[in-house]
Amino acid sequence: MAQLARFWRTHSLALDIPKGPFPGLESCLSPQNRANLTNRLKTLQRRDLSSLLRLRAAVLVPLCTVMGQPSVLFTLRSASLRRHSGEVSFPGGMMDEGDVDIVATAVRECQEEIGARQVDVMGLWHDVINKDRTVAVTPVVAWLGEVDINQFTPSASEVQEIFTIDIPTLVVPANRTFYLSSYGTKMPVFNGGKHRVWGLTAYVLAGLLNGCFLPNTPSEQCM
Q1: Is the pLDDT of residue 67 over 90?
Q2: What does the alpha-carbon distance between residue 216 and residue 24 come to, in Å, rounded to a whole number?
Q3: Which of 54, 56, 175, 206 would be 192's cystine partner, CB 3.0–4.6 Å?
Q4: Per-residue pLDDT tens over the stretch 31-44
């Protein structure tokens, strides 16, 4: 029952669109604010679905700065992939037998997909379920530092493009909307960047931004 109640609270959090204003976002990934975020994630009363679903996967949520601007890094999946081809995503994939834990899965996938050299793990966000409702997906929040997307070496078989969107753009209310999934579930969408962000990626991102970056959101519900 506690997990179910936490699910509905975190689901509502992902569907909120705070109106702002959002003072201080330009410095939201300063060293002090990164330390604050790490502490919040450490004390988060997470929704952990690992005991409910046999299959597990992880995505790495890559926070970074681009010319000093706080940003989030995304990949555009290769058009040749069998599943989710051409979609915007975070680096991630299924847990392998050789992974010591789910954090190792996220870091490995990030290194394999984009060739990231610096991956400083900050903590875990709430687990989510894939659209087929067969896999528990754990978002691992990490800091990549100051980046230039040309520094990465994307996997040609998996990644068509690497791009970033700055956080001030992501949180503009006019850039956020919703759609109904094939299951009839309301899901968030982010516009305003190079590519539209939707699906599980947008769901994870909306919850994290609303819960940890936007002061007008009642994030205490989920922390």
Answers
A1: yes
A2: 13
A3: 175
A4: 999 999 999 999 99
Pairing of strands 135-146, 120-124: antiparallel
- By DSSP bridging, strand 135-146 and strand 55-66 are parallel
pLDDT 10s digits, 178-194 = 999 877 889 999 999 99
The residue with tokens 């875990």 is 124
71 neighbors 165 (Cβ within 8 angstroms): yes
Residue indicated by tokens 């007008």:
216
- DSSP state at residue 115: -
Q: How far apart are CA 223 and CA 212, in angstroms?
A: 9
pLDDT at 222: 42
Number of neighbouring beta carbons within 10 Å of residue 176: 20
Q: In whole angstroms, give the CA distance from residue 44 to residue 133.
A: 24
Name residues whose C-beta falls within 8 Å of residue 79's C-beta, 6 or more positions apart in sequence.
Answer: 85, 86, 160
Angle at 102 between CA 98 and CA 106, to 5 degrees: 90
- The residue whose two tokens read 């899901």 is 187
